[in-house]
């Protein structure tokens, strides 16, 4: 039991264990005690919880327009990253939430960043290989390391066509409210006409809850 307890504590993101800031003196050593002798994994308020093969996972939609690299940076501020999509459950929830936001703001078609891109072998080979072009899910990959196995979501919903020309290495979710939803390819710098992203998704593994920090004098 001791070994399991130690593994659990040190396998969570380091931001969860940053307890020194709640101590009156930073020189004191933070320790952790269970609340009601129970450890659980949970998502912060406002984040949706999903049960993935690798454990509890959290997602949230943010309605701000950024190029992909800045959207990714915003996710880092929330201790997360641009997520992949593992299941139909996740897909349905994402599309539903994005559609609700678009409808509330009288937007017909919206674009939302997720964490996928062309594989390195195809990233700058847009004209030299037909294998790299079009809706070939093998030419794309999720950057979410909490995904398990091949992505059936890419196989089913990818409609990438390099339609805007140039280099389009990033995956973006395209939602046409009440009509369709798909995964399209786009330049990470938004170099496709007047297109402007509606927002971005952030994902992260759940944190340990049911813990409280205490400080020792050692």
From TrEMBL:
<dbReference type="InterPro" id="IPR016186">
    <property type="entry name" value="C-type_lectin-like/link_sf"/>
</dbReference>
<feature type="signal peptide">
    <location>
        <begin position="1"/>
        <end position="18"/>
    </location>
</feature>
<protein>
    <recommendedName>
        <fullName>C-type lectin domain-containing protein</fullName>
    </recommendedName>
</protein>
<dbReference type="InterPro" id="IPR016187">
    <property type="entry name" value="CTDL_fold"/>
</dbReference>
<keyword id="KW-0732">Signal</keyword>
């Amino acid at each position: 039991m001791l070994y399991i307890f130690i593994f659990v504590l040190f396998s969570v993101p380091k931001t969860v264990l940053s307890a020194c800031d709640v101590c009156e003196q930073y020189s004191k050593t933070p320790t952790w005690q269970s609340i009601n002798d129970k450890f659980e994994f949970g998502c912060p308020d406002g984040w949706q919880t999903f049960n993935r093969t690798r454990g509890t996972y959290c997602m949230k939609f943010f309605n701000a327009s950024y190029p992909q690299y800045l959207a990714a940076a915003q996710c880092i501020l929330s201790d997360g990253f641009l997520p992949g999509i593992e299941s139909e459950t996740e897909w349905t929830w994402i599309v539903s939430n994005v559609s609700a936001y678009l409808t509330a703001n009288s937007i017909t078609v919206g674009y939302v960043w997720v964490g996928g891109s062309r594989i390195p072998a195809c990233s700058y080979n847009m004209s030299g290989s037909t294998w790299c072009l079009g809706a070939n899910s093998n030419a794309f990959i999720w950057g979410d390391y909490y995904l398990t196995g091949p992505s059936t979501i890419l196989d089913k919903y990818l409609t990438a066509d390099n339609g805007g020309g140039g280099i389009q290495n990033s995956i973006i979710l395209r939602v046409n409210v009440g009509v369709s939803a798909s995964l399209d390819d786009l330049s990470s710098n938004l170099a496709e006409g007047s297109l402007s992203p509606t927002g971005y998704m952030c994902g992260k593994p759940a944190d340990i809850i049911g813990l409280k920090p205490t400080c020792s004098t050692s």
